[in-house]
Design a protein that fits this description.
The chain is α+β, with helices and mostly antiparallel strands. It folds into 2 domains: 1-49; 68-346, 3-Layer(bba) Sandwich (YerB-like fold), CATH 3.50.90. Helix content is 20%, strand content 31%. It has helices at 2-47, 124-129, 141-149, 181-190, and strands at residues 67-71, 88-93, 99-105, 133-136, 154-156, 166-167, 177-178, 205-206, 216-217, 220-226, 229-236, 241-246, 249-250, 261-262, 264-274, 284-287, 290-298, 301-309, 317-320, 328-329, 333-339, 345-346. The strands form 4 sheets. Strands 1, 2, 3, 4, 5, 9, 15, 16, 17, 18, 19 and 21 form a 12-stranded mixed sheet that branches. The longest helix has 46 residues, at 2-47. It is globular, with a radius of gyration of 33 Å. The model is unreliable at 1-45 (pLDDT under 50).
């Protein structure tokens, strides 16, 4: 009996040892598979392509609604304030061979803007296509009528408190009205205007540098609005920007004294004529609906383009001569809408 018992115990111990061995082997295989699997994941992660992070356009972003401000461009109005902070600036002929600027701001806290001048009706077309609040100091009869009929969200500084629009002492009237973005937004809120916008940019900005390889050299651009009002741009290869001169005067910021520069220039040729409104002030109107000819200039080169606008409030589409919408460098842009017969020189 004792011998049988001993044999049974030995047999039981052998069974336990064998079972433990099998279990241990399975655990080992399981761990090995985990290690192999983990190793595969590591290798896969090491060889995978890094995620592509798209750059965001800097000049036009966010949901702040654009603000369009009429800026005096008479020789006596220089220097001007806030121009370098604008993402777009439109320059168009007005009476007497002069031109006026409309500077567009988006999300910029500009401390001094001006000198602010009166509205002209055809500038409204470009305020509308940018979904902008339109800011001015006075208006022509045509602009007043269109602002009402088109229901333009506008701010006429003449009717606002002097704490929002004030006259400076370093210039003479009417070339001395100033404002700032804080004041404009406060008045806009007082009037119940929408101050956010989801409208896309008029221009197709891209973050990759646009170099117009097929373009002609454009290091000096001369744009005559009249014999007494000539705009010039000179290309700076170091900064890859254009330095602006008008009326033979280097344009500088009213506050900082910095040169006014731009990354992009768009030239549009449009017919203008004098309005016979009985006031004999030589006010102009602009024929800007349809397909107009022009140029896109950036980084020292220029190409011919077309500028297509179907209605007053539709966005202008700028295309190359093959019919493709042009890509525009991420940076501020001067849109020079000049007389159709202007002798523009690009060198």
């Amino acid at each position: 009996m004792k011998t049988v018992g001993i044999v049974f115990v030995i047999f039981l111990i052998a069974v336990i040892i064998t079972a433990a061995g099998i279990l241990g082997y399975k655990i080992f295989l399981g761990n090995e598979e985990s290690v192999i699997s983990l190793g595969a994941d590591i290798i896969e992660n090491e060889t995978a392509e890094p995620p592509i992070i798209e750059k965001e356009v800097e000049i036009y972003k966010g949901t702040s609604r654009p603000v369009a401000v009429m800026i005096d461009n008479h020789k006596s109005a220089l220097p001007q304030g806030g121009i370098n902070e604008a993402y777009m600036v439109y320059e168009i002929i007005v009476e007497g061979g002069e031109s006026r600027l409309m500077a567009l701001f988006k999300g910029e806290n500009v401390e001094k803007i001006g000198p602010v001048r009166s509205a002209r009706h055809y500038f409204l077309d470009y305020a509308m296509e940018n979904d902008a609040i339109y800011v001015h100091y006075g208006w022509s009869p045509q602009a007043e009528s269109d602002i009402e009929s088109l229901e333009i969200n506008n701010i006429n500084g003449i009717f606002e408190s002097e704490k929002y629009f004030w006259r400076t002492k370093d210039k003479s009237a009417p070339h001395n009205v100033a404002t700032n973005m804080e004041s404009i937004l406060q008045v806009a809120q007082n009037k119940g205007y929408r101050i956010t916008s989801t409208k896309s940019s008029v221009l197709n900005y891209v973050t990759d540098e646009v170099n117009l390889e097929e373009g002609v050299p454009a290091t000096t651009i001369t744009i005559p609005y009249s014999s007494s009002n000539v705009v010039e741009y000179t290309y700076d290869e170091q900064t890859q920007r254009y330095i602006r001169t008008s009326h033979g005067i280097l344009n500088e910021d009213w506050t900082t004294g910095e040169e006014i520069t731009t990354k992009n220039i768009i030239i549009t040729f449009a017919k203008n004529t004098t309005i016979n409104d009985g006031e004999n002030k030589g006010r102009q109107t602009l024929y800007n609906i349809g397909t107009l000819n022009g140029y896109y200039i950036t980084n020292g080169k220029a190409i011919q383009i077309t500028c297509e606008k179907t209605t007053r409030n539709s966005q202008t589409i700028y295309k190359d001569l093959e019919g493709n919408e042009i890509n525009v460098n991420d940076g501020n842009t001067f849109v020079q809408i000049c007389p159709i017969n202007a002798n523009v020189e690009i060198q």
